[in-house]
Write a structure and sequence with these properties.
It is a single chain. This protein has 265 residues and is an alpha+beta fold. It has 6 helices and 18 strands. It starts with a strand and ends with a strand.
């Protein structure tokens, strides 16, 4: 659920959920971004972009799995995003390069690979002062570069990312906190499928029922990539790709723990 106005977000929560539950739900909001086409009034967010070459420090090896190189899908310039993220960006990683195993490699090679392996995705940080454009080796795809504007939004979690201890609810009316959110915030659902987003909360409502939590609580959402015909990538029928990282690893700046999950109808 995305809102342009924090005060409006809090008002909607209390109107729909009641004073106590509304305040509890609103407290779960996170700052995030809609990634859109830049315009004269909405410039690109630093060096952030979809596709194009990677921006890596000299000597950084191109990531791969079992000898097959991953494809670069996006770069986020966190220095350009830091002011809005505030304390939600505990370290300053500079540039973040997002790689994933592209299915469009020779079929005989691809079918031998485990797309669910942690090595099928990689998020590599780079110092902006030292980063150089690095072209993908074959057979990785080389997607066209598209700069992106990062529109600041406040995001609430999808109902599946809310647990019973997060929000007060009446057990006689609802089987759990997700039921409360689902029934009262129905036209403010978390479905942002079809859009590219960064940070905040991932869209997990698109028929997945998936909760992005680990033993330490909600994972940190880094990037959401929708299918994009202009760029030439897709994730199955109405699919979306999510990059997340455990909260402790994010706080420590350890992006080797980042994960990617694709969801489709």
């Amino acid at each position: 659920m995305q809102f342009d106005d924090p005060a409006g977000m809090r008002r909607v929560c209390t109107e729909r959920l009641g004073e106590k539950a509304g305040r509890q739900f609103a407290a779960m909001a996170r700052p995030g971004f809609r990634l859109t086409q830049p315009t004269d009034d909405a410039p690109a967010a630093g060096r952030s972009r979809l596709g194009g070459p990677a921006l890596l420090e000299p000597g950084t090896p191109w990531p791969g799995i079992d000898g097959v190189p991953l494809s670069l899908h996006a770069v986020l310039d966190t220095d350009a995003l830091a002011a809005w993220l505030g304390n939600d960006l505990p370290t300053r990683p500079g540039l973040l390069n997002f790689f994933y195993l592209d299915p469009d490699v020779p079929y005989e090679e691809y079918r031998k690979l485990d797309a669910s392996s942690p090595e099928a995705c990689r998020v590599l940080p780079a110092d902006p002062a030292r980063a150089l454009e690095t072209a993908a080796p074959e057979p990785a795809r080389r997607y066209p570069a598209r700069p992106v504007h990062a529109a600041e939004v406040i995001m609430l979690p999808d109902c599946w990312d809310v647990e019973d201890d997060d929000v007060e609810f009446d057990p006689d009316e609802h089987w759990g906190a997700p039921s409360l959110i689902l029934s009262t915030m129905d036209d403010f659902d978390g479905n942002t499928a079809g859009h590219h987003c960064a940070f905040g909360w991932p869209d997990t409502s698109y028929g997945t029922g998936v909760s992005y939590r680990d033993a330490d609580g909600p994972a940190v959402h880094l990037l959401q990539l929708a299918g994009d015909e202009d760029l030439g990538w897709g994730w199955g029928d109405a699919g979306t790709m999510y990059f997340t990282i455990p909260a402790k690893a994010f706080a420590a700046g350890d992006f080797s723990k980042a994960e990617a999950q694709g969801r489709c109808c």
